Amino acid sequence: MILIIDGYNVVKRVFDGHGKARSERHKEYFIRLLGQYRRVRPSITQIILVFDGGMFRHAEREVHAGIVVVHAGQASSADDWIADYVARNKAGSIVVVTDDLGIIRDITCNGADAVGSQDFYNFVQAAVQTESDVQAHQTFGSGLIKYNVQDNDVERSQEDVLRDLLMEQASMSVPDKGEPVKVEHARGGQKASKKDRQALKIIKKL
Questions:
Q1: What is the enclosing helix (H) or strand (E) of 106?
Q2: Which own/partner contact pairs does 63-69 have at CB distance under 8 Å and 24+ positions apart?
Q3: pLDDT by residue (tens digit) across 37-96?
Q4: Domain assignment of residue 46, given as a range
Q5: How many domains does the chain divide into?
Q6: How far, CA to CA in Å, does 39 sit from each of 43, 45, 87, 89, 131?
Q7: 3-state class of 113 per DSSP?
Q8: Helix 7-14 vs helix 78-88: angle between axes, to the nearest 10 degrees?
Q9: Are 64 and 70 within 8 A, CB to CB?
């Protein structure tokens, strides 16, 4: 499965009310958090985080913490880049994270699924927190991963990275905007609604 994220839509939705400098910090934190999320979700083959803007007219692509970060460029927008990518990859399994109704309309017409920004962020937090709780009760071997700090590659354990992410999250006082969507099974032989079945399908992919 490929996960495509409408970057500024998520950052603004989750960290609203903060200035530009804070938004850049949140952006960097979110990328590292996604790196950990992908590690605990091997079914996700690729995570593409798409932002508006960039230094050039054309799109730019970089990889940070295992996450493909795309800036759509001055001649386009993140919305257009996402819609075009989905249209060109109809055969694949794709989930798009956004609250933008225009994007949702375009990508669902081409067979992709959509999940809301806040719900997805809550899922990511829960997955990383669960992994941190598990690792807190295990003995770590010598496995190390690369962690980028001010452009210097420093080898750090997975436990250290998870701990730092959770501490950074606490320092930024991320607002709690509700629990992830919960889909309950129909009771008494009642058939779940089409909306509930679709929501459950997407949640299982995440």
A1: helix 101-108
A2: 64/31, 64/35, 64/148, 65/31, 65/32, 65/34, 65/35, 65/36, 65/148, 66/35, 66/38, 66/39, 67/31, 67/34, 67/35, 67/38, 69/7, 69/31
A3: 999 888 899 999 999 998 898 999 999 999 999 999 999 999 999 999 999 998 789 999
A4: 1-206
A5: 1
A6: 10, 10, 27, 24, 10
A7: strand
A8: 130
A9: no
E strand intervals along the chain: 2-6, 46-51, 60-64, 67-71, 94-97, 113-115, 145-149, 152-156
Length of the chain: 206
- Residue pointed to by tokens 């819609």: 83
What pLDDT digit, counting tens, does each position of 88-118 carry? 998 789 999 999 999 999 999 999 999 999 9
Higher pLDDT, 22 or 139: 22
- pTM given for the model: 0.70
